Amino acid sequence: MSQILTAEKDIYLPEPADVVRAEPMTKMEMFFEFKLSSGRPLGHMPGQFAEVAIPGIGEAPISISSSPTYRSGFQMVVRNVGNVSAAMHRLAPGKKVGIRGPFGTQFPVDGAMKGQDLLFVCGGIGLVPVRSAIDYVLHHRKDYGRVTILFGTKSPAERLFVEEAKQWAAQPDTTFLETVDRGDEHWKGSVGVITTLMPKVKVDPARTVAVICGPPIMYKFVILELDKMGIGKDRIFVSLERHMKCGVGKCGHCQINGLYVCQDGPVFRYTDVAEVREAI
Asked: How many Cα atoms sit within 13 Å of 88 on the Cβ side?
């Protein structure tokens, strides 16, 4: 019985963590760096999430944006969309939160992606969880082939990790392309939805693995473009972050027919969800 209680405590009780950095990225997004108060690493892999608890407010599932190769703590980007996220936006360095996790499936950086060319297609805050995989891959650069990163946002003001993206583009055999739905008087780059970037990309479909993360409407059109490129459905991975809440499959908020995103995902091979109604 004591062993069962110990295991449940690890899952259900938040561990204290310190806010190391808190910096605005856009009008809606705030960048955070946390460090567990115990000093131990979080122990996550790219694509996973953690539950962040604010005493007296509640908790919410937040993607982990940093690679596990980052040893100084872990990073998240939080959009201000509810009570918990609004409370997080008021946090300053030195404050504490509760952390449960990590939870969920991961991008197969040590599995199906290893040794392959990689195509990352990210829309808006979909770049946040994918950044963990991008940084992991670039930290282990020799283990992967060519890397192509496509990023789209609604406007230039919503772009994320702008300076970091320049560093990605400077890496060997790495391409970074971005577009915005609507430009402004200062924007000199591409204008259009993210699929307008895809014809500019040359891939070897037999050795390319694609990763997609973004708003729900984006997936169908990106997958159609990947099909035109000849990339097989079994070589496509999607992150289906939905209205996750408890993180342990109890509340049902993230249920898609028979799937629980927080337990079965959030990362899925596309062939596993292609026929699941409302998944894509």
From this structure: 36
Q: What is the pLDDT along the chain (280 residues), one digit of tens a residue?
A: 334 344 444 667 899 999 999 999 999 999 999 999 999 999 999 999 999 999 999 999 999 999 999 989 999 999 999 999 999 999 999 999 999 999 999 999 999 999 999 999 999 999 999 999 999 999 999 999 999 999 999 999 999 999 999 999 999 999 999 999 999 999 999 999 999 999 999 999 999 999 999 999 999 999 999 999 999 999 999 999 877 778 778 888 888 888 889 899 999 999 999 988 778 8
User: How far is 122 from 154, CA to CA, in rounded Å?
Assistant: 12
CATH number of the CATH domain containing 41: 2.40.30.10
Residues 126 and 84 placed together within one structural domain of the fold: no
| Burial bucket for residue 185 (CB in 10 Å: 0-12, 13-18, 19+) | exposed
Q: Domain with 141 in it: what CATH number? A: 3.40.50.80
Shared domain check, 68 and 133? no
Based on the fold, state whether residues 136 and 212 are members of the same structural domain: yes
Residue 21 forms beta bridges with which residues? 33
Range(s) of the domain holding residue 84:
2-103
Query: What's the pTM value of the predicted model, to 2 decimals?
Result: 0.93
Number of domains in the chain: 2
Please answer whether residues 34 and 100 qualify as being in contact, where contact means their C-beta atoms are separated by less than 8 angstroms: no
